[in-house]
Amino acid sequence: MNKQLYKLPQLPYAYNSLEPYISEQIMTLHHTKHHQSYVNGANVLLEKIWDSRQKNTELDFKSVLRSLSFNVSGHILHSIFWNVMAPADGVKNKPTGEISKAIENEFGSFEQFKKEFSQTAISVEGSGWGILMYDRLSQRLLIAQIEKHNLNGYPEHKILLPLDVWEHSYYLDYKNDRAKFVEAFWNVVNWQEVENRFNS
Asked: What DSSP letter does each residue of 37-97 carry, written as one string?
């Protein structure tokens, strides 16, 4: 069995492609150091679980599985995050298609959605994420906060647009001005990818 289940994905653009909104330095560190650490952490924990099974040894599953959830969730969220961004000269500043209709139906307008999403991301306590999700059960769009990486959501929630507001995402560019980073993020949102995720 191949135990290295998780691998760092390549970015669909160069590290400097999101400038001036997100710097090459931030993107390089965020991808090669922070995201890589979640991939490594998840694989180490899986190795620990497999070794425990092979050797029939006791394992503190509460601790190990919580750490595994943190690392795997970090890997998944970052993998989506990279893809819902694109160079500003190649993206539309508003969604179109079915996701646009869904946003207008749920929030009344794109401007209201943008306001609610921004306030959600800015007000995350400590480290975490602002998320636009689609709830398959109610067939509605939802905005939520995620603390750290652990996904405090229901299995039927499909993540459409995650925004990483851990300080490592913006501090080198924006210092402690998270609101300025969130505002800059709207310039690089890849709405076509959000639409693809919504329709998949």
From this structure: HHHHHHHHHHHHHHHHHHHT----HHHHHHHHHHHHHHHHHHHHHHHTB--GGGS-SS--H
